[in-house]
Amino acid sequence: MNVKDSLDLAYDLFQQAYECQMQGELDTAVELYLRSIETFPTAEAHTFLGWTYSHQGKLDEAIEECKKAIELDPDFGNPYNDIGAYLIEKDRHSEAIPWLEKATLARRYDSQQFAHFNLGRAYAALDLLSRARVEFERAIEIEPEYDAALRALELVRNRIQ
Q1: Structure pTM?
Q2: Which of 23, 79, 19, 71 is nearest to 54 (CA)?
Q3: pLDDT tens per residue across span 100-109
Q4: How is the chain split into domains, by residue range?
Q5: For 18-61, what is each residue's pLDDT tens digit?
Q6: I want to staple 96 with a disulfide (CB 3.0 to 4.6 A). Which of 32, 87, 103, 121 is the partner?
Q7: In the CATH hierarchy, which top-level class contains the domain 1-94?
């Protein structure tokens, strides 16, 4: 199979995996993401496999998949943000911050509001409320209707007063 055919097949498997993931068929999604990676490894497939693992409660495996994604494409922002979010879930807020900062600077990341929101969450958990406020404000600048960031900003402002 030539490279183009491998890439096309990997993409098709990725799309099927994503559909299964969105329907809650996580085990099937994992199998399809793994087949996609086996056919042609991409940062996206590793990142979304990690996301699926996170929904299964396998945060360490999720982090490892994101690290593999970064090896393949260091400019792809999603895995940096996801590692940060998974570390927050593990109550490792300080460790999350450098990953989230990298996400905010990634060249290929269309959803930087999530990285700023997660940075805000990490800072708030560490009681660095002024920094948290700034990050929530940045998230809202990018996505003015981001409800979670709007609520978090209000909570932080109330804690600062």
Answers
A1: 0.94
A2: 79
A3: 999 999 999 9
A4: 1-94, 111-161
A5: 999 999 999 999 999 999 999 999 999 999 999 999 999 999 99
A6: 87
A7: mainly alpha
